[in-house]
Amino acid sequence: MDFDVAVIGAGPMGSYAADMISKKGWRVALIEEHRKIGVPVQCAGLVTPRVFELVDKKLTVVNRIRGAEIYSPSGRELLIDGKETKAVVLDRAAFDREIAKDALFHGASSFLGSTALKAERRKDGIELSVQTPDRLVKVNCKILIGADGIRSNVAKWFGLPRAESIVKGFEAELVEVDCNPRFAKIFVGNDVAPGFFSWIIPSGETTRVGLCVEKGSAYNYFNKMFQSGESSRFLKNSRTISFVAGAIPFGLLRRTVADNVMIVGDAACQAKASTGGGVYTGLVASKLCADTALLALEADDFSERFLKRYHRNWKKAIGKELKRGLFAHKIYSDLTDKQLEELFDLLDNEKILNLISEKGDMTFPSNIGKHLLKKEPRFLKYVTPAIKALFR
To answer: What is the pTM of this model?
Structure first.
């Protein structure tokens, strides 16, 4: 079976690339290992409204968030009120399906419940061995796009680098949670979620509760949310509807292309280490990936040298934010609970909280850092050790 482009992974990044390429008339194969697109859901679904500048899928919004209630290790609360919608909560399964439907509408061929077992380079491109529900088929393509997630086989097959670090996550969909529907709750502390944070996100008729951790068992820390700490008082009467485990890869990869090959999304570590969010950044990269694929098809040039424009372009568009996010994550993950409490002392100031509400940006969260340092130089105390660590 011959195609111009094969995309492995029908999540939002893979489907978006497939849509943009197929609508220009090229033959696209969209290969997805699950029989149903959008499941299992492995994302809290809290995204910036800027997502809709790329994909017009506002009908998948189930809630709008205007701020956050943040809890310190000792249970102190900081209220960040953006006064208006700062983030939206998506029905992620529906969001994924709607983008994939666009790709199919524009002519992409879907292979659902199908696994790409191996890829071999041929004179005229890539040959994939794909196990469909019925039989083993050969899929030939000029360009292979790997949107196949954290354990990307495409990256492995073609020697592309892997994540520098990974945080493990566990999340559940609950009902009967005591929370304000317009505010997400965030909990920090080394006994809560070491190296990251836990969350309670109102999502319409249900509430998403979860966390990520750098070390230890995400499942065990998740269970602790119901047993102790500030989160437990909001969850004491809740009931679980569903749950899922996952992981988020972090890093700034030096290569995301090879001859005939590009990787995107989690396969390319395009999530922000500061928040774990990767939908917007992944979609930005996906568009640039599709743009490069279209140029390569027109030029009939699928060399790594030609495809490198994708790598350069996504680094230019989102690389600075990803790099800053890694730096912020390094600072945060090294903090003790005592230092976190000291940070809450500095943040618990009306002028500082107003500054965060005014300047905070979910798309580019690192931007608030320079404003905070200018307003309160004592924050430098926590930044300096991380700077020194970079030069050891």
So the answer is: 0.93
